[in-house]
Design brief:
With 450 residues, the chain is mainly α. It has helices at 2-18, 22-30, 34-42, 46-53, 58-67, 70-79, 82-89, 94-101, 106-115, 133-136, 150-160, 185-190, 197-200, 214-223, 244-262, 277-304, 306-311, 314-317, 319-342, 351-379, 383-414, 424-448; strands at 143-145, 169-173, 179-184, 208-209, 228-232, 238-243. The N and C termini lie far apart (69 Å).
Amino acid sequence: METIVLDDVLERIREALERGDLQTAAAIIENYRPADQADLFSELDEEHQVALLSEIAPEDSADILEELDDEQVADLVAELSDEEVARIMEEMEPDEAADLLGDVSPERAEALLSRLEDPDEVRPLLLHPDETAGGLMTSEFLVLRRRMTAAEAIEAIRRWKPESETIYYLFVVDRFGRLVGVVNLRQLIVADPHALIQDIMDPDVIAVRAGTDQEEVARIMTRYDLLALPVVDANNILLGVITIDDIIDVIEEEATEDIQRYGGAEPLERSYLDTSVVTIWRKRVGWLLLLFITATLTGSVMLLFKQELESVALLSVFIPLLIGTGGNTGSQTTATIIRSLAVGDIEPRQALAVWWHEFRVAILLGLAMAAAGFIRAITWDAGIDLALVVSLSILALIIWATTVGALLPLLAERIGIDPAMVSGPLMSTLVDATGLLIYLSIARLILMTG
């Protein structure tokens, strides 16, 4: 139902734009929530987008840009004057403004900073890479002192008038700006007005360094159910705060990248329909060529065992069944291990424990599938010897595929490669070639020597 409504709204916006009525088009967009505004806005061509940003209220323009992909924002900002961009940036959260400045040239970023009322809110955030805690944090937060009372803290909040996303926790610092505690809003409200902050705060604060990777930040906030996370430097001085809305974006972004990599392609930087055909081709062709080259190993193995395949024609009949089983088993294991790594269930140093766990699973899976393979071979009149070859090959192949599927992601994580790059297609292709080698080697041993 929502899609139908937005489609109708989009048609009204386009009709207004065709008449040259920017005010009406802008007014229609301003009536919706930021996420819906961004959806409507992104459906328009760039010429109309640029024109509308100058017409839409700055706070709404800021919300729209915060919802769009970084690449789309960079393209739009390139078409706007410094004055128009600065007008929109004034309504942005400091971390979002810093992200925008990170997508323009250093010269223009400095020019835009000079137009802001308080550039010092944004400037420190530019020192940190986008995908770190420092790049995610906002410098707009309220700190409390230990000797303040609960009543004084509440009055400070009233004077500050914070945005809703920054009021979950209030962090306490000493006179040097070092983080010493945290207190939530509920504690302040129910506390005796004369109670000192140092008596009601929790001194055991979970914090991260500015250089912490965003995936680790997301893992910490998810593990401890945090709505906000302080960022500190080496001396424990409070630098900024990361809020849950930013982490939700990170989780979505990282999950999208992992899924695309697991499918055997490089992740896209912008939405699918906004990505050119050439860019999508470039993201996929490298992996396809790599998989093509590795797939030729299968042909090489078959040539190596050409005599056996010619002598026992039925050997070829079971090849799709065997390599399919091996590839599927490896992909199952890889997907499980990659996800366990992502949520922190396992670590690379636990490789032996992971392998032993998967080995026992593989034995059970292998026995079940070997029995099924033996029965299938008999029903195809393969004979006892060939049925035995098939069943033993399935057992060996499942153990091998499970071992590879378990250890490769752990090895990738250990050497600093994204485990998702050990993708399903790559895993299947590698296991296909090695699985065929296992199958034909067992066939040579049982059939040719017997």
